[in-house]
């Protein structure tokens, strides 16, 4: 059974790997044996050290994912790193908070560009390489509870993450037959920069905590196992799912 979760010899690309969930996913994949290309616009020094400590090789690829300009280069630099690109984790994402009635076009476009448009075109570039080499692979999109629910004051975020759930299913339908698994993880409320504003608001913090059956904010390390599962042979017959890792939030 251990072989079903072994990523030895595989290369993963993780976007937004400098902090938060992306960093935890990169470290978890390295712990299962993968080498990891760390993609983002900030220093990856902490993650590089943690990936090395977990037993993997790490390479930083500088890229601002607010446009699709870097997507082909991300794949090329990954191939230059290890000669292969087996796993893509589309983790980088942003959130903008304002009442829907006042929400600006700039906040709409910024979120949709990073959370949805670049995810699609990076996935396309990743899949083109696999298909050109007649190889299978794994794409893991980081969705959200807002892929299932409406939320408040985050209209472009909810639209992007609901769209990402649909995109996950569409790509799974198109690429499953080519040996490419496309799935998503929907994290619940995790303690990262993304949720700092909520945790700093005493009313929102206690309302959220009171609804989580597990009784605590998720810690980024608690997401790693789901990412390894969806990256590994164990999930070879799993296509198009959005897997909640939410302390039971959606069950409530
Ligand atoms: P985070 O700490 O804010 O991390 C977001 C990551 O995305 C950072 O590495 C950030 O890089 C990167 N990023 C943003 N814009 C980018 C750009 N233009 N180019 C390159 N990288 C960019 O938040 P997180 O919670 O770990 O979020 C990771 C993912 O999980 C996101 O997709 C988020 O929507 C999703 N998620 C989080 C939660 C939660 O509770 N935390 C719940 C559901 C879903 P910089 O540091 O350079 O900005």
Break the fold down into its secondary structure elements and pairings.
Layout: E1 11-15, H1 20-31, E2 35-40, H2 45-53, E3 58-62, H3 71-82, E4 87-90, H4 105-132, E5 137-142, H5 155-175, E6 180-187, H6 196-200, H7 202-211, H8 224-231, E7 242-245
Helix pairs in contact: 1-2, 1-8, 3-4, 4-5
The structure holds NADP nicotinamide-adenine-dinucleotide phosphate.
The site of NADP nicotinamide-adenine-dinucleotide phosphate has 26 residues, from helix 1.
Bound molecules: NADP nicotinamide-adenine-dinucleotide phosphate
Low-confidence segments: none
Strand content: 15-25%
Q: What is the element string, with H for helices and E for strands?
A: EHEHEHEHEHEHHHE
Distance N to C terminus = 32 Å
Number of contiguous helices: 8
- What is the fold named in CATH at topology level? Rossmann fold
Broad CATH class: Alpha Beta
Query: How is the main sheet built?
Result: 7 strands, parallel
